């Protein structure tokens, strides 16, 4: 009897410990400023993509009555961190597209998918009149390209390390026909820890 | 004898002043709602909402519609305290009928040093965005 009681108490205690230690999951606002670590964060993404979109919307290309077609290249990650820079490119493209001032053409990474879909529609199972024709892809007027760099510094003190991180996103817009750069801008972010 | 001359001058002055056309609007007068409110102070009160006790003030708003049809807004922030202030602000854009023009705007961070004044330039997300509100926390 005593042994059973002991086991019961043990089970009760361990289950109590398990439930008290399990982390609580909550939904949070994705728009809020996030400063959990010094590394590239969702807030950094929002800051740099919004700054670039604002700058591009103020540029001369948006004065064009015919919405210019832009191809966007993936932002090159020249930082020491692993950052999936396609989220920067996608965020900029979505915001610019929603402005209704520009259009986006198929970029080099999406071309294979586009061609494969056109080829698939040439298949005998598709209605000829409802299938897209080959050779109708629109060529872009401008090419948007850029890179993200970072400068990392740290200083060790007695019990802690002071870190300083500097990010710079540079973007350029090139006229494909003339090879002239028609717009360029940069956005800096500095973060410190410790 | 002098009275008719004075009357004449006064009449001409009144006539000229009534005929004079107003000059071009100043950028702060072009902000939506300014014509009804009539002052910059009232305009800021109607557009800006402070969610917390923040030691940062908005001292002027200027609006302009760019050649491409997008509204641009200059917001003059001021920190007249003796400490560095870190604040966040959120700009929501609205269409003519009061519907939200941008689905999910983000909070933007702002750091102001003591006695610093800073102008933040914003641009509407699309042509249908013609009004805005600012929240600060």
What does this structure look like?
The complex is a heterodimer of chains A (194) and B (137). In chain A, 31% of the residues lie in helices and 26% in strands. Chain A is of the alpha/beta class and 194 residues long. In chain A, a hairpin with a 4-residue loop joins β4 (142-156) and β5 (161-175). Chain B has helices at 2-19, 34-37, 40-47, and strands at 48-50, 57-65, 71-78, 85-94, 108-112, 117-123, 131-136. By secondary structure, chain B is an alpha+beta fold. Chain A binds chain B through residues 30-33, 43, 46-47, 50, 54, 57-58, 62-63, 95, 98-101, and chain B through 66-68, 70, 72, 88, 90, 102, 104-109, 121-123, 125-127.
Summarize the amount of helix of chain A as a percent range: 25-40%
Number of strands of chain B: 7
Give the overall average pLDDT of chain B.
86
On the 0 to 100 scale, the average pLDDT of chain A is: 90
Q: CA-to-CA gap between the ends of chain B?
A: 69 Å
Q: Please trace the helix and strand order of chain B, writing H or E for each element.
A: HHHEEEEEEE
In quaternary terms, these chains amount to heterodimer
The count of strands of chain A amounts to 6
Question: Topology, pairings included?
Answer:
The complex is a heterodimer of chains A (194) and B (137).
Chain A: H1 2-21, H2 42-57, E1 69-72, E2 76-77, H3 86-99, E3 103-104, H4 111-121, E4 142-156, E5 161-175, E6 181-193
Helix pairs in contact in A: 2-3
Chain B: H1 2-19, H2 34-37, H3 40-47, E1 48-50, E2 57-65, E3 71-78, E4 85-94, E5 108-112, E6 117-123, E7 131-136
Parallel strand pairs in B: 1-7
Antiparallel strand pairs in B: 2-3, 3-6, 4-5, 4-7
Give a short synopsis of this structure.
The complex is a heterodimer of chains A (194) and B (137). Chain A is of the alpha/beta class.
Distinctive features:
heterodimer, A: 194 residues, alpha/beta, six-stranded mixed β-sheet, flat, B: 137 residues, alpha+beta, four-stranded mixed β-sheet, 35% strand
């Amino acid at each position: 009897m005593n042994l059973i009681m002991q086991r019961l108490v043990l089970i009760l205690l361990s289950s109590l410990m398990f439930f008290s230690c399990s982390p609580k999951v909550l939904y949070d606002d994705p728009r809020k400023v996030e400063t959990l670590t010094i590394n590239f964060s969702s807030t950094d993404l929002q800051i740099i993509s919004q700054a670039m979109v604002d700058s591009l919307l103020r540029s001369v290309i948006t004065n064009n009555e015919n919405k210019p077609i832009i191809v966007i290249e993936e932002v090159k990650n020249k930082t020491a961190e692993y950052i999936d820079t396609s989220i920067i490119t996608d965020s900029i493209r979505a915001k610019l597209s929603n402005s209704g001032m520009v259009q986006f053409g198929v970029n080099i990474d999406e071309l294979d998918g586009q061609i494969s879909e056109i080829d698939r529609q040439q298949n005998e199972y598709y209605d000829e009149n409802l299938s897209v024709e080959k050779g109708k892809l629109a060529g872009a007027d401008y090419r948007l390209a850029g890179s993200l760099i970072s400068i990392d510094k740290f200083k060790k003190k007695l019990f802690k390390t002071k870190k300083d991180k500097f990010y710079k996103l540079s973007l350029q817009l090139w006229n494909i026909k003339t090879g002239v750069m028609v717009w360029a801008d940069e956005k800096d972010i500095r973060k410190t820890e410790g | 004898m002098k009275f008719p001359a004075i009357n004449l001058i006064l009449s001409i002055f009144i006539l000229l002043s009534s005929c004079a056309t107003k000059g071009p609007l100043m950028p702060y007068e072009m902000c939506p709602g300014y014509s009804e409110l009539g002052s910059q102070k009232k305009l800021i009160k109607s557009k800006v909402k402070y969610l917390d006790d923040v030691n940062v003030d908005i001292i002027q708003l200027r609006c302009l519609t760019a050649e491409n049809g997008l509204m641009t807004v200059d917001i003059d922030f001021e920190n007249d305290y003796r400490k560095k202030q870190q604040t966040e602000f959120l700009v929501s854009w609205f269409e003519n009928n009061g519907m939200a023009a941008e689905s999910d705007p983000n909070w933007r961070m702002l750091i102001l040093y003591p006695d610093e004044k800073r102008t933040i330039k914003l641009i509407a997300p699309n042509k249908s965005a013609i009004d805005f509100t600012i929240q600060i926390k």
